[in-house]
């Protein structure tokens, strides 16, 4: 089996929403509910590249603190839409949503965030700090970003993040 960042082992999934693959990549037909094997699931990539989403009034030259919201695995920045009014009351227009390809490595996603921020501001001598808020895998990305860029981060908040890793489904063939 060759590593493919778009393929992961999962312990629960909706078979109607995802394509089920066996380890050999065969898609035609062994039903996971009746035949126990180790299965891989190919998740659709929601974003092929990292991007920052923020309001048009966001000023990278300001000295006011800002927030970076980082979505979880298999999601995108729109997961935060219902909370934007809450964050806007705290941070005003200084809210950034970071969107990244879920199938990439944590280090690649951190590098993507660093590259995007670095193209808009000085990372070595920042004028302000961020509060980083991450959900699920986004919390792990945020933690790694904070560790690598401590001069940029004031607070780190993680919600439901698997900081000790995740357990994969390992069912023995009978």
What does the model show?
The chain is built from three helices and eight strands; from the N terminus they run E-E-E-E-E-H-E-H-E-H-E. Helix 2 (106-118) packs across helix 3. The protein is α/β, with parallel strands linked by helices and 174 residues long.
Number of strands: 8
- Note poorly predicted spans: 1-45, 169-174
Cα separation of the termini: 20 Å
Form type: globular
Number of helices: 3
Instruction: Give the helix proportion (percent range).
Output: 10-25%
Sketch the major β-sheet.
5 strands, mixed
Supply the helix-strand structural class. alpha/beta
> What share of the residues does DSSP label as strand, in percent?
15-25%
Brief rundown of the structure:
With 174 residues, this protein is an alpha/beta fold.
Task: For this entry, give a set of tags.
174 residues; disordered N terminus; 3 helices
Write the layout of secondary structure elements.
Blueprint: E1 7-8, E2 19-22, E3 39-42, E4 51-54, E5 66-70, H1 84-91, E6 95-99, H2 106-118, E7 130-135, H3 137-148, E8 153-159
Parallel strand pairs: 5-6, 5-7, 7-8
Antiparallel strand pairs: 1-3, 2-3, 4-6
């Amino acid at each position: 089996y060759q590593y493919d960042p778009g393929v992961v082992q999962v312990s629960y999934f909706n078979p109607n929403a995802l394509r089920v693959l066996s380890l050999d990549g065969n898609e035609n037909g062994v039903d996971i509910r009746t035949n126990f094997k180790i299965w891989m699931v190919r998740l659709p990539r929601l974003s092929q590249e990292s991007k920052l989403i923020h309001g048009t009034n966001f000023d990278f030259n300001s000295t006011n603190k800002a927030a970076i919201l980082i979505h979880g695995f298999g999601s995108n920045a729109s997961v935060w839409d219902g909370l934007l009014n809450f964050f806007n009351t705290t941070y005003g227009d200084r809210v950034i949503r970071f969107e990244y390809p879920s199938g990439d490595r944590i280090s690649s996603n951190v590098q993507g965030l660093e590259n995007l921020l670095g193209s808009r501001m000085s990372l070595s001598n920042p004028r302000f700090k961020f509060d980083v808020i991450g959900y699920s895998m986004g919390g792990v990305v945020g933690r790694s970003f904070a560790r690598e860029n401590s001069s940029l981060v004031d607070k780190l908040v993680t919600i439901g993040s698997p900081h000790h890793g995740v357990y994969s489904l390992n069912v023995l063939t009978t």
